[in-house]
Amino acid sequence: MASGQVKTALVLAGLQADGTTEVVEPNRSRDHTERLLGALGAPLEVVDDRTLRVRRATLPAFELDVPGDPSSAAFFAVAASVTPGSAVVLEGVSINPSRIGFVDVLHRMGAAVEIRPTGDRLGEPVGDLEVTAAPLTATTFSPEEAWIDEVPALAVAAAFADGVTEIRDAAELRVKESDRIGALAQELSQLGVGAEERPDGLLIHGGQPRAALLKSHGDHRVAMAAAIAAVGCEGESTVRGWRAVAASYPGFADDLAALTGNSS
């Protein structure tokens, strides 16, 4: 399967193996590993979008200020987009072309998101994302492996958008930390938003979500999606199972509170 994590594990093993190791994926995955190893001078050859070759090598020591994670940034970008009067600048985020597909989707929805490149860190392009609130309209999209984790955030954008958004070709969401298609459908329904499950996606009937009692389904990204939806709604919402957020972003609640001015 196409997986940036699996690919990375195999490439790192190849750096310790005699001969040439070739890694072939069915589809392109995120390319952080290729960029980092290339910047370090590793004997790595990018044959095409799906194939890498690597030979044994000892890498030099290095220092790296790791760029901000686009998957986490996506939740704040959507929160700012759907909350009237909001504006946020997300600094030092990886703007790797394989990772910012969610920005393209938001642009198609009419979101006001500007990418400002600021430099490069060991082969990884970095920049700031400036987002201001804007009315959104529905769209249709099929996520790629490299940014499928951003679908829960985009589902929230769709909940606030005018029209019906269709998410296609996303069956992988069924086998994440939760069945994210089923979980998102349930939580959007709790918010008063029409959501129809498909085997590989969702139909989301946008409108004006309302405050609700929500749950994480034990999934960090569903929990964060519920929280940003709550920020865009009038009234008080509760997200149960919040501990799940610790899997990727234990400080998310504090950072969201700092942006919204709500310490509760």
Number of helices: 8
Number of strands: 12
Structural class: alpha+beta
Tell me the span between the first and last alpha carbons: 42 Å
Please, could you describe this protein's structure?
The protein is of the alpha+beta class and 264 residues long. It is 31% helix and 24% strand. Strands 7-8-10-9 form a 4-stranded mixed sheet, covered by helices on one side. A 3-stranded antiparallel sheet has the order 1-3-2, covered by helices on one side. Strand 9 (194-198) and strand 10 (201-205) form a beta hairpin. The longest helix is centred in the N-terminal third of the chain and has 13 residues, at 70-82. The chain is globular. The model has no long low-confidence stretch (mean pLDDT 95).
Secondary structure layout:
Blueprint: H1 4-14, E1 20-24, H2 32-39, E2 44-48, E3 51-55, H3 70-82, E4 87-94, H4 101-108, E5 112-121, E6 124-132, E7 140-141, H5 151-160, E8 164-167, H6 180-190, E9 194-198, E10 201-205, E11 213-215, H7 220-232, E12 238-240, H8 252-260
Parallel strand pairs: 7-8, 11-12
Antiparallel strand pairs: 1-3, 2-3, 4-6, 5-6, 8-10, 9-10
